[in-house]
Design a protein that fits this description.
alpha+beta; NE0471 N-terminal domain-like; 3-stranded antiparallel beta sheet; 24% helix
Length: 139
């Protein structure tokens, strides 16, 4: 996984797109990113997800349907995201959001490989919501 470096970029806009399940960010440096809620949730900067040191990360499973329910500012440097699975302990700094956007393709690939290695799909796992009758697991 790519190392996070300070970007110094500050968002000029932040838009939650509930229907498409993305957080759109534009930065003063000119870049813009559409970050899926699922990616934001599985790469939460919280201790619950990242652990307290290298090798303590906890693979997040069953987050394909997760929604972003609230975005709260944290000073002038970050936001706290609230998700429909009750997770809300991560503080997403501007640098971290920029890093997620800049590295989104590699992070997504890494996540899918880790899920597969653990025997899960995006729809399955210990955290997966119960699927409705007749609703398939589109892979």
């Amino acid at each position: 996984m790519a190392e996070m470096k300070k970007s110094g970029a500050v968002p000029t806009s932040l838009t939650v797109r509930k229907q498409s399940r993305v957080l759109e960010l534009a930065f003063d440096s000119g870049e813009s990113y559409s970050l899926p809620f699922e990616l934001l949730r599985v790469y939460s900067p919280s201790a619950e997800v990242r652990g307290h040191g290298t090798g303590q990360e906890v693979l997040q499973t069953g987050k394909r349907e997760v929604l972003l329910t609230a975005v709260e500012p944290v000073g002038n440097y970050a936001v706290q995201l609230h998700f429909s699975d009750s997770h809300n302990t991560g503080i997403y700094t501007w640098d971290y959001l920029y890093w997620l956007g800049a590295n989104q393709a590699q992070l997504w690939e890494d996540y899918l490989k880790r899920l597969e290695a653990a025997g899960f799909t995006r729809e399955t796992g210990r955290d997966a919501p119960m699927l409705s009758e007749g609703r398939g697991c589109g892979h």
